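Backbone shape codes
____________________
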Amino acid sequence: MSPQMLRVLQKEHIVSIRDIQKNLSKVLRGITRVTKGSKTMGFYLANEEFEDFLEDMEASKSKKLTGRVKKAR
């Protein structure tokens, strides 16, 4: 597992639909996995997390950046 993926998983909060119904603004923050029973129903990403995700996706498309990362490793 990549260090980047581990960073994302460390920031993830897990809440149930019932938790959301009780106090929406308290439980939805950062990266939140929404569950119903043992099934993942979806994810909530705060604006900052979503922007970081998009930036990472755009950077991964750059052949120049990918080449520099491979060379550095």
